[in-house]
Design goal:
The chain is mostly beta strands. The protein has one domain. Helices cover about 5% and strands about 35% of the residues. The protein contains two helices and 14 strands; from the N terminus they run ββαββββββββββαββ. The chain has a four-stranded antiparallel beta sheet with strand order 1-2-5-6, covered by helices on one side. The chain has a four-stranded antiparallel beta sheet with strand order 7-8-9-10, with no helix packed on it. It has a four-stranded antiparallel beta sheet with strand order 11-12-13-14. The longest helix is centred in the first third of the chain and has 7 residues. The protein is globular and about 55 Å long. It starts with about 30 loop residues before the first strand and ends in a 20-residue tail after the last strand.
């Protein structure tokens, strides 16, 4: 017979407490994506329900495979809201087209938005990263490659990108015989995580250590500025 009584407290348990409420700045908006910045601020992208659906769009192939769309067919109006823990900034972006996006704060109140997918084209690959000014205008665009699972920015504005399997082996036009995916393992050095300043594409791949295979999927990263 099992003992019934006061449950034994796990010494690794952490008591949770209410810190803040992640609420939209505009009533009726729904959450598209959110993340945490280098100063522990929360940053979120909000849109109306049709906009959220467009930004989470997928294409199902005849065989049944479903893939995330790199971009929306038309621009979607969104609001990027920063919390620390209450709302500290609201940036309206009139036409965002980067689907399945990641968001991070940058220095000087700029914002980085990166789409998870990036299609390679003979004339030019998709520009799947955009840096926005505090007024929502575009400061610059960049190509960070396909298959992006994680994006983190440091307090000094460096950007770290982690790629999942399709960003390593290739899809959406990347890979043999076309250009090597940005997240592909080098020969040598091997690379999956890339570090870059916010004003240019990845330039500092992370090499592997002797005797270790390359990292397939960027599951977690601990970043310092």
């Amino acid at each position: 017979m099992s003992r019934v009584g006061k449950p034994k407290r796990d010494r690794h348990a952490v008591d949770l407490r209410r810190h803040a409420e992640l609420a939209p700045a505009q009533p009726g908006d729904v959450l598209v994506t959110m993340s945490v910045g280098p100063r522990n601020e929360a940053i979120a992208v909000w849109s109306d329900p049709p906009g959220r659906q467009a930004l989470h769009g997928r294409t199902t192939q005849p065989g049944g495979a479903s893939f995330a769309d790199p971009a929306t067919a038309v621009g979607v109006a969104v609001r990027v809201v920063t919390y620390a823990p209450g709302i500290t900034a609201v940036v309206r972006v009139p036409e965002l087209r980067l689907a399945h996006c990641h968001v991070q704060p940058l220095p000087d109140d700029q914002i980085l938005i990166v789409a998870a997918r990036c299609r390679w084209r003979p004339d030019h690959p998709d520009t799947n990263a955009v840096v926005l000014n505090p007024d929502g205008s575009v400061a610059r665009r960049a190509v960070l490659g396909d298959g992006i699972g994680h994006v983190l920015a440091t307090d000094s504005g460096k950007i770290w990108v982690g790629y999942f399997d399709e960003g390593v082996y290739g899809n959406y036009g990347w890979g043999n015989p076309r250009p090597e995916p940005i997240g592909a393992p080098g020969a040598p050095p091997r690379r999956v995580l890339a570090q870059c300043p916010s004003n240019r594409p990845p330039a500092h791949p992370i090499p592997d250590h002797d005797g270790l295979d390359f990292l397939l999927d960027g599951i977690e990263a601990h970043i310092s500025s």
